[in-house]
Amino acid sequence: MSNTKKLPLAGVKVLDMTRVLAGPFATMMLADFGAEVIKIERPEVGDDSREFGPFVDGFSAYFASLNRGKKSLTLELKIPEGKAVFLDLVKKVDVLVENFRPGTMEKLGLGYEELKKVNPRLIYAASSGFGQTGPYAHKAAYDMIVQGMGGIMSITGEPGRPPVRVGASIGDITAGLFTAYGIMTALYHREKTGLGQLVDVAMLDCQVAILENAIARYAVTGKAPEPLGTRHPSITPFQAYKTQDDWIIVAVGNDQLWAKFCKVIGREELIDDSRFITNAKRTEHVEELGNILEEIFKTKSFAQWMKELDAAGIPCGPINTVDKLFNHPQINSREMLVKVKIPQDKEIVAPGVPVKLSETPGGVQGPAPALGEHTDEILKTLLGYTEEKIASLKTKGAL
């Protein structure tokens, strides 16, 4: 566990009203670098993902993997007493993050326009399916909906096969990444001006943002990109090939590597072959080259090809199944699989922090919280509530 006094976000207080994946992923990133993240959950219900498996002694490993290092406070916003507590919290925090459908907070009288009157320095981050504006703003969305609408499913999979979802929930995760990025940008702006602002992140926008060369290809050619399997659309050879016993990925990114590659595979005559002499030519004749290379790679085992290609400096690698990540020397050396504590003194393994800072490195700052675990603590220390007031709020159903 890292020392929060040395972390870049130490002292930043975040009111986390998010649930499931996109929002919790963003606030987890803030917690990993020292922010105090206060997760607001409905009494007795909590974040929906507390009910998602797999479970360890009844506690959701899914929830734990996204909510480490946070504090849980239960609060019912639909009654006046709960709303009053919420406004007291807003006065004390730097950032509020929510991923409700647009209009939800406004219906409660707690939208950004109202909250900035309470705290002009507040950074209000709203992550939603389609954003706060536009004709689809109030439409519901889930990860696969935006994967489909955003175009990435149309270029994923094998040619001529039915569409497939990307294996990870990148609709949610990219929204979480961009939300954290927006919050950090707004915090930096506030340091210079003293003013907060609204951070509006749409899952659909994020999917479009990561399409990179697919957008460029259509804009230039007028032809919609299609699935290519493992093949890269404009770099060749750059794909997975079947060896005698397993798949190997080869990425020959320039003509210098191409010459080295041809020597390794024992086909130096291909270096100056007019069909393959440049990357553009290799891509133009990708099927012809693919037929040649498929037969070559079948002649040796995966281990043999890896040894020879590595020795020549050719970028290559395996297609690892998830279980192989747990004992991978590079992944372990970078601490990319870490232990997270959960209630009842249990632990789970979760992804680590991919951003490595030399002076103020982030890391897991604490366990995943039980529902409402920190309610009394936060109300006493942050808001100065007495035990009597807290008891009264509980009696009224506000906590």
In short:
By secondary structure, this protein is an alpha/beta fold. The chain is built from 17 helices and 13 strands. A hairpin with a 3-residue loop joins strand 12 and strand 13 (346-351).
Q: Number of helical runs?
A: 17
Please tell me the overall pLDDT: 96
Beta-strand residue fraction: 5-15%
Secondary-structure class: alpha/beta
Q: What's the SSE pattern?
A: EHEEEHEHEHHEHHEHHEEHHHHEHHEEHH
Portion in helices: 25-40%
**Strand ordering within the main sheet:** 5-2-1-6-7-8
Instruction: Tell me the Rg in angstroms.
Output: 25 Å
- For the terminal residues, how far apart are their CA atoms? 30 Å
CATH topological fold name of the largest domain: Rossmann fold
Strands, helices and their partners?
Elements: E1 13-16, H1 22-32, E2 36-41, E3 55-56, E4 59-60, H2 61-66, E5 71-74, H3 80-92, E6 95-98, H4 104-107, H5 112-118, E7 123-128, H6 143-149, H7 170-193, E8 198-202, H8 203-209, H9 213-221, E9 238-242, E10 247-251, H10 255-264, H11 279-284, H12 286-297, H13 302-311, E11 316-318, H14 322-325, H15 329-333, E12 337-342, E13 346-351, H16 375-381, H17 387-395
Parallel strand pairs: 1-2, 1-6, 2-5, 6-7, 7-8
Antiparallel strand pairs: 3-4, 9-10, 10-11, 12-13
Structural features:
13 strands; elongated; 399 residues; six-stranded parallel sheet; alpha/beta; three-stranded antiparallel sheet; formyl-coa transferase, domain 3
Commentary on this structure:
By secondary structure, this protein is α/β, with parallel strands linked by helices. It folds into two domains: 4-210 and 330-395, Crotonobetainyl-coa:carnitine coa-transferase, domain 1 (Rossmann fold), CATH 3.40.50; 238-242 and 247-318, 2-Layer Sandwich (formyl-coa transferase, domain 3), CATH 3.30.1540. Helix content is 38%, strand content 15%. The chain has 17 helices and 13 strands. The protein has helices at residues 22-32, 61-66, 80-92, 104-107, 112-118, 143-149, 170-193, 203-209, 213-221, 255-264, 279-284, 286-297, 302-311, 322-325, 329-333, 375-381, 387-395; strands at residues 13-16, 36-41, 55-56, 59-60, 71-74, 95-98, 123-128, 198-202, 238-242, 247-251, 316-318, 337-342, 346-351. Strands 5-2-1-6-7-8 form a six-stranded parallel beta sheet, sandwiched between helices. Strands 9-10-11 form a three-stranded antiparallel beta sheet, with helices on one face. A two-stranded antiparallel sheet has the order 3-4. Strand 9 (238-242) and strand 10 (247-251) form a beta hairpin. Helix 1 crosses helix 7 and helix 7 packs across helix 8 (203-209). The radius of gyration is 25 Å and the shape is elongated. The chain starts with 12 loop residues before the first strand and ends with a helix.
